[in-house]
Transcriptional regulator, LacI family (Microbispora rosea), 341 residues
Amino acid sequence: MPPSRRRATLATVAASAGVSVATVSKVLNGRSDVAPETRSLVLSLLEQHDYVAPPQRRGEAAPDTIEVEFDADLNAYSTEIVQGAVQAGADLDVAVVVSIRRNADRTGGWARDLVAAGRRALVAVTGELTAGQLTALARARLPLVVIDPLNLPRARVTSVGSTNFAGGMAATQHLLALGHRRVAYLGGPATAACNQARLHGYRAAMEAAGAPVPPGYVRTATFHYYDGVTGGAALLDLPEAPTAIFAGCDDIALGVLEAARARGLRVPEDLSIVGFDDTQIARMASPPLTTVRQPLREMGAVAVRTALRLAAGEQVESHHVELATELVVRGSTAPAAHTGG
């Protein structure tokens, strides 16, 4: 926001609407004793003036609050993120509110509503944010930190992730070391930064080993179980099917396990599978899943701590932080059954 542009007040909006400040306040607080026409006019002017309610003074409000926002239903991955964020909040005496808001729900008043609700900062997880939404957050002066962003419409958006490229290389090198040469990759959205890094790590390992990547051996969809089932089925039904599959997340890997089971294939005797994340489901799978561990709880904690620093007006050392990944070998991988694999 340009320095010359002053924050709109209730009085500004009331004067534009030709009503009292009390009436504007009633609209903001959702009171029912306002005529529908007046309510509609006031809401429209609040939008036009980019009105943001001032934060309540300490002592009048609940503890400092950060919102951790997901754009899809919670799963094993997001639960780990939440655990880390909530623990960091407890350590810092900050309340952490978890919400699910689809991209279509991030309307023009979304950022102002967050500020009016007392949020000091927003942590968005694996979301896809538009330039307009980033502008709305900037106008509301609401700091943003993104975890595993699906896109970065602005280079200076602060984000937290992991060493996805190194993790992708480690997963693929593990399979190559077991003698597999027909290794496929089944990942998430093609445009997701984390997916691209994992895929590049896979390709780098394959190229370094002189292992070809035949047509059809790389597939992308979403980071969901059902895409692991359908994508795994497509890979396993190829004329020359892979003997090993590197899945872009644990949910996808479990879908591949189901696709293999439906075809009478044994894991790991007939097919080796590596996931990514090391969520609880990786340890509960049958067989337990070899996977690349992301420090998901620490990623949630780092995002909360970074968001609080931004809210306090501090400068951060880097706009993107990557935490180290680690390959965890369990029972879903084994040596290739024959030298051709």
About this structure: The mean pLDDT is 88. Residues 76-91 form the longest helix (16 residues).
